[in-house]
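Collaborator request, handled under Task 6.
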Amino acid sequence: MKILLALVFSLTITSVNAVSKRYSLGHNIQPSLPITQIPVAIGTSCATPFHYSTVGLPTSNIPSHCPWPVHNDRWFVFQTPSSRIKLEIETADQGIPINYTLYEESMLQVEGSCGNTPLKEMPLLTPLARYYLRISTPQPTHVDISFCLSSPQEIQVGSNCQNPIIITALPFETWDTTAHFGNHIHGATACITHYTNGNDVVYKYTPNTDQVVDISMDPLGKSWTSIQVLDSCDFTNANCLGAVANPSLNVRIVKGVPLTAHQSYFIYISSWYPPQRFRYHLELLQR
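Structure tokens returned to the collaborator:
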């Protein structure tokens, strides 16, 4: 199982088995296990998340806000560089929910979720303040978890159709990951109803002549991914020129797409969470 959370500045995250304080949750909690430092190198995306296993983890005696028991309890502490923090959670096993809770240093709860939350921007936090993040599961099942935190920055080129990656000529080929782009597009499109709640990447191509193009996207071993070809930045009302979206691991191929000279076309790649993000190989070939 995987989880993901995001923090776009260099930051050290500390693992805490429990915190020796009285907690502002309606309960008086006794001090428990000592703090263990785990330094984590944080990049500008979730391409390199922090990984850990729940094997052997204890459960702290801090009450949970979720309606089920707490297992595999692990705590982290961080100092936020800005007031805006984005949280992404990803799990490969949809059958086991993942809980998280965010506390101020006084242990006042400021945010929480029971279950799998694909993407969440936290309420405004206090810059340079200390916060605790608690991650747990409702079952004692041993799982592997990975996560990261990110502080939102300017939207990355390719994150939506207003700021797409420009394809200047064919043939075109690229290897990339949707981890760099975030989830900025939501809801049904002219092509499909789902497959938009994962991270998004958008390419734009404007041919100089009339062309017929084959487009393929290999999700490199990930399921529940999609590719769509549309003729307008208004994805809801655009004409759908082709799409492939399904739970298989197969290469997504849109064959024989007719393109008109000087008309802009958008290739939209995303997923139906989980996965939140995935690596891919994209290729456009003119017939």
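The cover message to the collaborator said: "The chain has a mean pLDDT of 78. The radius of gyration is 21 Å. Please let us know whether this matches your experimental observations."
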